[in-house]
Amino acid sequence: MRRDVFQAIADPTRRDILNMITHKSLNLNAIAENFDMSRPAISQHIKFLQECGLVVINQQGRERYCELQPKKLIEVQDWLEPFREMWEGRFNQLDSLLMKMKNKKDKP
Questions:
Q1: Secondary structure of the chain in HEC code, one letter for each residue
Q2: Predicted TM-score of the model (pTM)
Q3: CA distances from 31 to 19, 23, 41, 104, 105 (A)
Q4: Cβ(18)–Cβ(9) under 8 Å?
Q5: pLDDT tens digits for range 83-105
Q6: Inter-residue long-range contacts of 50-58, CB under 8 Å, 24+ positions, other chains counted
Q7: Which residues form the HTH arsR-type domain (predicted)?
Q8: CATH number reported for the structural domain that contains residue 36 in this entry
Q9: In terms of domains, do 86 and 46 share one?
Q10: Looking at the structure, do residues 49 and 80 belong to the same domain, yes or no?
């Protein structure tokens, strides 16, 4: 089964895991403590993230640490860019309209 970054971020638990490891790598137990599910279930989510290329696991002694690979998220950013541009354009149009309305109101 082909796994991709969009499947990874579709799940709220996996998004939460990614948010947790954004600033520092965490071991599996530290991640699992934050969820009301079994450690094997969290391990499956992490495995999914690893298969998508969003997480790498580094062995440090007996502990396994999860580290975010943010470059893979560029795929999502590229997909979202046209939508961002569209909404930015619409907000700019709204700003212009509001300024025109304000200027008309301010004129005696």
A1: CCCCHHHHHHCHHHHHHHHHCCCCCEEHHHHHCCCCCCHHHHHHHHHHHHHCCCEEEEEECCEEEEEECHHHHHHHHHHHHHHHHHHHHHHHHHHHHHHHHHHHHHCC
A2: 0.78
A3: 11, 13, 11, 56, 56
A4: yes
A5: 999 999 999 999 999 999 888 88
A6: 51/3, 52/3, 52/4, 52/5, 52/7, 52/8, 53/5, 54/5, 54/8, 54/18, 55/17, 55/18, 55/21, 58/25
A7: 1-88
A8: 1.10.10.10
A9: no
A10: no
Q: In this structure, are residues 34 and 45 in contact, taking their beta carbons and an 8 Å threshold?
A: no
Q: Say if CB 65 and CB 25 are below 8 A apart.
A: yes
